[in-house]
Structures are given as structure tokens and as C-alpha cells.
Amino acid sequence: MRGVPAFRPKLAPPVPRARPAFRLLLALLFGLLGAATAGAQQSQPPNRQVTVQNETDLTLNFLYVFPRGSADRGPDRLGDEMVAPGATFRARLGRQSACTFDVVAVWQDGREEARNGVDICRNPRLVFGDPAMPTLEVAVANRSEVVLRELYASSDGGAEWGPDRLGSQVIETGGAFRLRMRTRACRFDLRAVYADDREEVKSQLDLCAERGVVFDRSGVPPLPRHSLVLVNRHLATVQEVYVSASTDSDWGPERLGTTTLLPVGEETTVELEGECEADIRIVFPNGGAEERREVDICATPRIVLTPGWVLGAEPPAEAAAARPGAGAARAEGEAGPLRLRNAGPLPIVEVYAAPPGEPRGADRLGADVLGVGETLELEAPDADACAADLLVVFRDGREVSRPGLDLCQGEEIEIR
Description:
Elements: H1 20-43, E1 47-55, E2 60-67, E3 88-95, E4 100-107, E5 112-119, E6 125-129, E7 135-142, E8 148-154, E9 176-182, E10 187-194, E11 199-206, E12 212-215, E13 225-232, E14 240-245, E15 267-273, E16 277-283, E17 289-296, E18 302-305, H2 316-322, E19 338-342, E20 348-354, E21 375-378, E22 387-394, E23 399-406, E24 412-415
Parallel strand pairs: 1-6, 7-12, 13-18, 19-24
Antiparallel strand pairs: 1-3, 2-4, 4-5, 7-9, 8-10, 10-11, 13-15, 14-16, 16-17, 19-21, 20-22, 22-23
């Protein structure tokens, strides 16, 4: 009997050995590929950067570094940053094949400093100012009740004040600022400008010996003082009063105080400091407000607040009637303002009285309304301009007009 043959697995055919010439060809191919990759990497320009060193008195706001002779400065290399006096900053220029650039620095006072043909490969540091110049530091304090907005220093008797040393900063009431200057001089004049545009100058200060300066407005000449009387003959209580110089950019403090109101029929006196020309703003409890600009409070120290008072100066007759003890009555036979009575079914929300044929002008009611049964006196701007066209608007939008009225005859008319 024949035996069972032994199991023999199949084997893969043997791989023929590579010939020496083939192996040499593979090595050459890999070598060429590596050389090409290295060459491509070497062909990219390097990342350039430059260190900016500020040894001046001013903050560096913008820095432009661009190819030599280019008309386009390109982006600001500082980005959102600024370089303060004594500080450094590393500006990254990206991949650049060139070494020579033009540079423009823009300082906080807007002055520009240009440098042409700067080789940043040979010297990758831009130094502005003289590092060998001594630094003078002085603490400047504000002990006044007004924000100090600008500060100037001059070593030539104020002939040239130079830039605002505060830059974008201010010195708050009770605050201080460290004035830092690169200089060999010691004697300076300092000029402070407050938020209200008043100035205070301190002359011939030895800042090498006196390292602290205090501004307290003691050197500011006092302004004239005025008393302004406000009489409320409006249709509602006045909740807030603002009076400020016409040259001011804001209304300033509220003059009545947080716990005081000016009810209808009463008056108050506001003490002011400054020039004669002022702006006046009154605010009612409902948030409505009225303003009158460029009022000569020296010539008109008493203002009667009535509907339409924003149109012009207070008529003399109205002022006399508003004085304490005078009452509302007039002398017998004396003409007075036109009295308008609301005899309609709804409140009146707008009243216009303008010279015949002219635009309607300002609403005499302002933020108020004239309720049913209530009356309103309409004063003429002056005795020579009594004729007017009257236009009344009710709350539902209905309009009633009365052309050719005489505002100086003291009569009463009803509007329905």
C-alpha cells in the first residue's frame, strides 16, 4: 500500500536580485529629488524683521517700512500698537528679498520723520532719538476741579510750545501724569489747558531741582460772575435747567440740583461764571426739552419761560408782568398778548404763529400740550411785528388756521 504524500505549501517565486545598474539609477533619482526640494526651499526670501527703539519724548503712532523708491507706503507696521518713549517694538516685515527700505515714522503730534535707503540686513534696529541724551522726569498733578486736557513744555520762554505732552491722555481731577523729556535743559515753562479751554502757565520752573508741579487754577484769571433769573410761566414744571457758554461743547452741570424743581409760577436764580453769551436748556418731567442758543444774559438777566420763549428775547411787557407782586393783570387800557383758548374737544398739541406769508416757524407749545379749556398767551416777537397767521393742531391731527391776527391787541379767541 502506497503511503500518503507529505503536504508541501506553495512558495512565491523568488524575486530576482536587482542589477547593479538599476540600483544606481534609483539612487540618482532620489538624489535629484532631494536637491530640487532643497533648492525650492532656498529660493524663498527670508522673513525680515526690525527692532524699533524710541528714545524721543513723543509716542510713535505709525511706522511705514516699504521698498526703496516706492510711492506706496504699505501697511502700518505697528498695527494696533504704539511705541511709547523709552520703549521698543519688533516690527515683522514678512518675506522680503531686499535689504534696503525707506522708512517713515509718524509721531503723536502728526510730525513725520523719513529715512531713505535703510539697510536692515546690516543693522536690524531703528533708533529714533539720542539714547545718550539724559532723561528728565517730572510729576505733574491736577489739584483743580476741572479735567486737565493738554500739557505743553517750552525751554525758550514759550516762543515754541511744541506738541501736547499728554497725547491721547488727560489728567483727571486729583490725578497725576509723569512728564518725561529727553533734554539737557532744566528751566521750562509749562502750560496747562483745561477742559473748559481756560489756560494756566507756570514760568521759569527749574525741573531738575523741582521734580513735582501742581496745577490748581490759581493762575487762571477769574471770569465775570452773573445772576440769571428764570421764571416758569410754562404749562408744566421744569425739572432740569442747564446754562453753559455758547462756546462750550457740552451743557455742563444741572443747575437746579437733584432735589429741586421749578414749578409753574415760581422762579429761581442761577449763579454763573463766564462770558455773557450763553445757551439755555430746560427739561420737563416727561423728558421733553427746549433750548435757546446765544442768549445775552448780561443784557437779559431775567428769562420768562413760556410756550414759545425759544423764539427770541423776552418782551419787556412780559418781563414786567412776571415780576413778583405784579400779577397777571395789566393797567387799564393797556394792550397785551393774544390769548388763545382751547374750546375744542381734544387737547391742542401744536401752535404756530408766524408773520403773514412766512414759514410757520417753531412750535410755540414745545413739549407741552394745551388742554381742553386751557388758555395760552401768544406774544409778538416785538411791537413792530404784531401781525401773524395762526395755525393750531389738535391731538387727532385736525388743523385750524386763523390768518391775519393781531398778537398785540390783548383779545381772547377761541379755537374749536
